[in-house]
Automatic annotation (TrEMBL):
Biased composition (Basic and acidic residues): 261-272
Protein name (record): Recombinase RecT
Lineage, broadest ranks: Bacteria, Pseudomonadati, Pseudomonadota, Betaproteobacteria, Burkholderiales
Region (Disordered): 1-24, 251-311
Biased composition (Low complexity): 276-300
Single biological process term from Gene Ontology: DNA metabolic process
NCBIfam families membership: rect (TIGR00616)
Superkingdom as given in the UniProt entry: Bacteria
GO molecular function term, any single one: DNA binding
């Protein structure tokens, strides 16, 4: 699939025309698709603010100008569907990699999604080298930090921790990770090398690692499960979006026409980008935008909501690309109708075996290369 970066769109302007900056090109693109963005947003977020936040982060990262403009817009749509803001709020970030942009939830975004579900509260923090603490594990887990810090350099962080309080539980879930363990975890799961976002956002990443461990034990909404799956995908350098059924889908799998290579002028290129965007990004809003009475003669009976949720979980199991994302989907099986449990659990076991086999094959291939 051909790609169109903001830099390419700007350079393909006719010589007699005044060249616009990459930021202006993105701003114009956002304005053309503002209605699409507005329909994806929850009531507490406004499209103008979302666009400003995205443009602010875009201006702070030159690598984003090299990204396919469609993946930038897709990432903003994903953030909108999760109800998370981009950039300065720490709820999520636009991360470029190999000419594509993906939305990565930050620790504050994950905390917000847990709180929204209403069944648990989580918190994450860091400990600096000038702080003393007491950690108790076992049946009475507890973490006490005895003094404040005067440090703020991420390189002075020695530990990161997360605590989760689940409604009705007697004790909290506590995870305390030394920074060396977090670095080893990053090196183990990181498939993109020095391009990994943690190298520029170390404290954010350090907080998020133990937080994700705590979240394994809390009840999850579909939005939270999707956010965790997106985070796991970013470790592999993959780009995902959320389709019309609320399911995670690879951006590369979306039905988007190729964009011209820029040989016919900026106006034609922009039009082609628009045509490529609309089928890909309106999937979620198509159902919401259609009147409920439209085509009622041909309309099929509405599916039971519980069955619809079970179908979503089934697709999450099938689409899982790691054991962590598979486990997240499996946690939701108990919320489905009982008659679906047997088949979904069987699918879970089948997918786990396949992922473990794939991981083993990859490990053997690596050992052969080392020899």
């Amino acid at each position: 699939m051909a790609t169109t970066s903001l830099t390419a769109l700007r350079e393909n302007n006719a010589p007699t025309e005044k060249k616009s900056s990459p930021q202006q090109t993105l701003s114009d693109f956002f304005q053309k698709h503002k209605a699409q963005l507005e329909m994806a947003l929850p009531t507490h977020l406004k499209p103008d603010r979302m666009m400003r936040l995205a443009l602010t982060q875009f201006s702070q990262n030159a690598e984003l100008a090299k990204c396919d403009i469609r993946t930038i817009f897709a990432s903003v749509i994903v953030a909108a569907q999760l109800g998370l803001e981009i950039g300065i709020t720490g709820q999520g970030y636009l991360v470029p990699y190999k000419g594509k942009c993906t939305f990565v939830p930050g620790w504050q975004g994950l905390v917000d999604l847990v709180a929204r579900a209403g069944r648990a509260v989580v918190y994450t923090g860091v400990i600096y080298s000038d702080q003393k603490y007491t950690f108790t594990d076992g049946a009475r887990r507890d973490l006490v930090i005895h003094n404040e810090t005067s440090l703020d350099d991420p390189l002075d962080i020695t530990h990161a921790y997360a605590i989760g309080w689940i409604k009705g539980a007697d004790i909290p879930v506590v995870e305390l990770w030394p920074i060396s363990k977090i670095a080893r975890h990053r090196d183990k799961v990181n498939k993109v090398g020095q391009k990994h976002y943690s190298f520029n956002n170390w404290e954010m990443y350090a907080r998020k690692v133990p937080l994700l461990q705590v979240i394994k034990y809390v009840p999850k909404s579909v939005e939270l499960s999707n956010a965790i799956a997106l985070d796991a995908a970013s470790e592999d350098g993959k780009n995902f979006t959320i389709d019309g059924d609320g399911l995670i889908a690879p951006i590369s799998d979306l039905n988007t026409p190729d964009v011209d290579d820029g040989q016919h002028g900026a106006e034609n290129d922009t039009q082609r980008v628009e045509s490529a965007q609309e089928p890909a990004q309106t999937t979620t809003i198509a159902t919401a935008a259609a009147p409920s009475h439209a085509n009622s003669a041909q309309a099929e009976p509405e599916q039971d909501p519980a069955e619809r949720e079970a179908d979503k979980i089934e697709q999450q199991l099938r689409n899982a690309t790691s054991e962590d994302t598979l486990d997240i989907a499996a946690d939701l099986i108990s919320s489905t109708p009982k008659h679906r449990h047997k088949a979904l659990n069987a699918l879970f076991r089948e997918r786990r075996a396949a992922l473990q086999e794939g991981a083993q094959s990859s490990k053997q291939a690596t050992l052969i290369q080392m020899d």
